[in-house]
Amino acid sequence: MDAPNSANGEKQPLTILLASPRGFCAGVDRAIQIVERALERRGAPVYVRHEIVHNRYVVESLERRGAIFVDELDEVPLDAPVIFSAHGVPKSVPEEAERRQLFYVDATCPLVSKVHRDAERHFAAGRHVVLIGHAGHPEVIGTMGQLADGATTLIETVADAEAIAPVDPDNLAYITQTTLSVDETAEIVTILKRRFPSIREPHKDDICYATTNRQDAVKAIAARCDAFIIIGAPNSSNSLRLVEVAAALGCQRASLVERADDIDWPALAGVGTIGISAGASAPELLVEEVIAAFRERFCVNLELVAARREDVRFKLPRVLDDPPSPRLEQRA
After folding, report:
1. Residue 121 lies in domain
2. Count of domains for the chain
3. I want to staple 108 with a disulfide (CB 3.0 to 4.6 A). Which of 53, 88, 237, 261 is the partner?
């Protein structure tokens, strides 16, 4: 159902506050480029273990170009290249790829890889690792899979932080998933530090710059909005956190949509100002699509609100710089 027009048939006025930064982060952009470059270098098909990023539009676009997404490596033919998703994988995955002599490229976000290295460093120093994150998320599975079973304890909530009972409370370190709520994570960390004063913390926050920046951008405008739309996938942790941030600041009509077709127009009746942002896996094309849908129904005044500037870029694996070849023997 379309949004209602005014009594004289004219479009109702609507102010859109467009958050910036929004959408693709450097890790997502790098992962997508890896798949695209692999298709250029090797030709189709290129296999990808799990969704390269959490966005169906992106996945389907790559599928049309020849990417095949699989759940496990045993679905990958021996002569085909395979790419690991941006969320990271357990150590057992590249080990299996090596055993099967597959050509593979690891598209794990460098900031996730940094968390993996921290986990390994703490484990090597004999510390038990506490991981703050969401059970079942691919990034959490990948991070816990860097260490031996039992070396990591996952906590998800404040209650978990209060309840955790480590065998050696004086020999702990904590790491975090990169896409968490900044405020909720800070609350959990405060509890851990109170309960375990000697707990080691990351040299630099594990929550990535893009997650923090997108949450700050939503915070900058949420109080001015009657409603808020976040463009992203329902399995995207950072997108879901943006909805929660908007709601926590009093914008109760905060919702997640994947495409413009998902917008609940009747729920926006009477709205004068709406905020729009996008999770780190959502392409700008989908933001433009949503804004165009609003322009069809409202007389839109679009205001860009920039919280900060982003200029982060990550290099592609060097193996992808090689000239096109019918068979690449080098591994990333």
Report:
1. 110-195
2. 3
3. 88
